[in-house]
Amino acid sequence: MVPPRDGRRLNSLRKKHAREFEEQAKRNAERVARKAREKEIRAETSRLQRLAREREQRRASERQRQREEEYRLRYDERWKALLDPRTRDHGPLTFADIPWPLFSAPDSVEDITPEAVTSFLLPHVGGMATPAKNDDVSRRNRDKLKETLLRFHPDKFEGRFMHRVPASDVGTVRETAGQVVRVLNVLMSRQS
């Protein structure tokens, strides 16, 4: 049997260890809770950053779409001005004055590719449309290609504009217009 004095000491040690054990358990629980909060904060921060990146990408995409649409409008306006009988024969027509079916003036004939002309003339419609809408889009695409092909058709282009082109640009303009026609013919064959 344990003497009373030793028994009290043993009880005191048990209580002391129990308090230390409780304090240790409490610290462990707090550490686990803190790590869980930190993990939640990191996850939320990551989610918010991802949303911000997506929002910025959407804004950039929308700005790009608007710039492209503005360029297409300027292209159409320049063609209207070129084809207007009242302004048809006013001044020389340089390579840079011709509205090429691209988002920027070509540096060389190699810049006129089916992909570049397609992205300019036939902007992609997002998602799959219903069959009726697909037929409507196909018809609009063919009409746009035909309209552009008629603008650059060698005989018409030659008769309407080449007399206004300075001698220094004649070769480049003729070669580039020919490349546009070749690309348009490829695109028309794909539409069929």
Write down the overall geometry. Answer: rod-shaped
User: Would you tell me the overall average pLDDT?
Assistant: 85
Element order: H for helix, E for strand: HHHHH
- Overall strand count: 0
Unreliable parts:
125-132
The helix/strand class is: mainly alpha
* Estimated share of beta-strand residues: under 5%
- How many domains make up the 3D coordinates? 2
> Mind telling me the C-alpha Rg?
37 Å
Number of helices: 5
Describe the structure.
The chain is mostly helical and 192 residues long. The protein folds into two domains: 1-68; 91-191, no CATH class. Helix content is 74%, strand content 0%. It is built from five helices and no strands. The chain has helices at residues 4-83, 114-121, 131-152, 154-161, 167-191. Helix 3 packs antiparallel against helix 5. The chain is rod-shaped. It starts with a helix and ends with a helix. The relative contact order is 0.08.
